[in-house]
Structures are given as structure tokens and as C-alpha cells.
Amino acid sequence: SSETWELDPEELELVKEVGSGQFGLVWQGQWQDMKVAVKMVREGAMSEEEFKEEAQVMKKVSHPKLVQLLGVCTRRSPMYLVFEYMEGGCLVEYLRSHRGALSQDMLLGMCLDVSEAMAYLESSNFIHRDLAARNCLVSKDLSVKVSDFGMTRFVLDDQYTSSQGTKFPIKWSAPEVIKFSRFSSKSDVWSFGILMWEVYTEGRLPYENRTNQEVLEDLSAGMRLLKPRLAPESLYQLMQWCWKEKPGDRPSFAVLLHELASMMEV
Ligand code: ADP
């Protein structure tokens, strides 16, 4: 029930601020014997009633490669969302700060971890909607977990949610999302192709010197991101498969997981 989901804020000890995001500040905290991350939802940043209903669904979405939502404190303002704590922080920052020090096994392992989480979401008919390296986190044992799944649905900032908005993640979005807001597991697959490119460039910004408008035009003309120097040809072929114009021509996450796992063995 929603009651068991509600954490007593008295049991939560706030330790230090570790970041800030779309919804507000993120703190490291302690809850029972567990290190946790506490997202403090800034007033007006989230459609809270809708989130509270969806939280019932989100607590059932659980997988070792997804950042687990542990509970919520909805009776206070700002509202708290409490997640498992990820020592390594955000994946894109991790990649940037470890440039030149990441082995081929590590890079492939990161993609494999994300594909496991996404194959699970796909089989649960749950669409992420904002998959990118910035929305993945690194654990103490260096596995990568997917965070913020489905959360853009509760963001109240138009600049972020409208494809015309200045904060909309055009560079991670499939063409049908940009043009018609048509989200699906196949649009998540497109974003996953961009995420693999981020991993193999050690955290570079895709289409670095291009504006959103230019990216749209280039994509329509059939242009795609180039092969990262560190990426094997077989991996670049997977990326290009993810970036097929028609959603139906892209692989499923089940297939991507299988392909990545088979590359890990050789
Ligand atoms: P929002 O969902 O509000 O946009 P983010 O998920 O982008 O917030 O989090 C902002 C920052 O807070 C991240 O870049 C990361 O450094 C830190 N952070 C978020 N969640 C966790 C977590 N579970 N464990 C550790 N650090 C986290």
C-alpha cells in the first residue's frame, strides 16, 4: 500500500549535499543501516499528485541494474524521494574523469549493464523516455545502473518537456519523438545507441558543435554520429542499428543484450 511506501522523515539523517538536478537538490543520507540518496523536490518542479499515484507502479519496477527507489516522504514540503546510494556518481562524469584509464572490458560492461536494465523495462512495458549517460549512475563495485526512468512525465518545466524547449534532449531523441512525441521502447533504443557512443567516446557531447536545428537537418539527410576511436566495428554496427529511421527497423533491447553479451565472451 502507499502507507508502507511512506518513510518517516525522522528516520532519515541528511549527511551532505551531493548534487542538483531537474527536481532540485540531491543529498547523501543515512536511513536505517543504509546509505541513501535523497532528492528534495523543489516547490513547483513536479506534478506531485501524478507522481504519488505512479509511485505505486514504480516500487514494483525493480532490477539489480536499476537505481532502486526505496521510499518517499510525501507529507512534507519539499517532498523527498529516497533512492539507493551510488558511490561512483553520474556515468557521464565518471567517464570524463577516467579518460584513458577505461579498458575495453569496462566500456563494454557499462553498455551491457544498461542493456540489462533496459531489457527488463522493455519486458515490463515501461518506457524510460530520457535514457542518456547523465541519467545512469555508477555503484561502488563499478557496475552501472539506470536512473530516473519515466520521471520526465512529472517534470513541470515546458523548456524540458516540449521538443521545442531549450532544455529538451534533442541529441538523445529519436526522430519520431522530436516530430510527434511518439515515445516507445524503440525510441529508448535510439537513445541507447547515443549512450553507447557516449561510453566509447569517454563522455563526449554528441554532435558537439551543432545546434539542435542542425542536428535535426543532418539526421533527416541520413547523417549519423561517427565511429568513436575506441569502439570496435561490431559495436559501431549495433549503434547504427539503433539509429534506423523507422522504429520497427531497430533492434529490441532483448536482442541488444544478447549481442553485447556475445561480444563480452570473445
Ligand atoms: P534530477 O532527477 O532532479 O534531474 P539527477 O538524477 O540528475 O536529478 O541528480 C543530480 C545529481 O545528484 C547527479 O548527477 C548525481 O551526482 C547525484 N545523484 C543523483 N542520484 C544519486 C544516487 N542515487 N546516488 C548518488 N548520487 C546521486
Automatic annotation (TrEMBL):
Domain Protein kinase: 12-261
Sites where the protein binds ATP: K39
Coiled coil: none
Family, as annotated: Belongs to the protein kinase superfamily. Tyr protein kinase family.
The name this protein goes by in its record: Tyrosine-protein kinase
Source organism phylogeny: Eukaryota, Metazoa, Chordata, Craniata, Vertebrata
Portion of the full-length sequence here: 347 to 612 of 612
